[in-house]
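5,6-dimethylbenzimidazole synthase, pasting as requested.
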Amino acid sequence: MVRFDPGFRETLGDLFAWRRDVRRFRSDPVDEAVFQRCLALAMLSPSVGNSQPWRFVRVADPARRGAVTASFERCNDAAAETYECERREAYTRLKLAGLREAPIHLAVLCDEKTTNGFGLGRATMPEMLRYSVVTAVHTFWLAARAHGLGVGWVSIIEPDCVASHLDVPASWRLVAYLCVGYPVEEHDDPELVRHGWQERDETASVLLER
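Structure tokens follow.
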């Protein structure tokens, strides 16, 4: 049995704190062995019924990457229009994606027709397949951070449009589009806090007793 000492637990807490979303990347290529190691660790994630529904697509083709970037720009412009006055100005000052700089674009999709697991655990909650993919995203993210890489999750995109440009099976649904690379700067606080969008709510209770 593996036992984790206090030093490991303290370092693990540091990893969680320094995991932060990254939008500013250096252009240096990512070592392939490091990237593959992070993917291998992501495969250790839990999944409903052992379904392992995650599908990773490294997007290297410039035209496909350009289509994703164009989708982000459309959605980002539309999102800015939903705010008014100072809040809109604050929004437009934020850097919300590193799509042009990141050396790796990684799409993470859910195979919603997978036969792995024989449907166990998802008859009443079919969304558990996508939740399982999210666990793989988070595991990859922590592994990347532990290896000195930064990850940024780009959600301001059109999922169906992006998936169509990836030429994947129709049953694969986009869950996450990640930018991966070495960060220009590193911080243990969220970028949205650092740039004045919103402070973290440290007072809200997240645990209810019933």
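Note for the archive: The chain has seven helices and four strands.
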